[in-house]
Fold:
Amino acid sequence: MVTICLLSIKEELFMDIEWIDGFTISVGYDGHTVTLSANREGLLSLAKQFVAMANEEPGTHIHYDKFNSLEDDSVELIVEKIES
Structure:
């Protein structure tokens, strides 16, 4: 398992991002539909991250792209918590 700690300098918030070894995640967009595809490890990693984000302040967000987590042919995905 790989853990990355994200820090928001402005608000000094910390959030641990955990990746389960062997994860594979890709995000595609065909002009109409966004498709998120993942293996078991990828889905479990995302689930843990979404639960962690649910406990953070509104505005907390995670960038998923080919440089930090997604397969090379993926489009960037940003997931953000909004106010209730």
Notes: The CA atoms of residues 26 and 71 lie 5 Å apart.
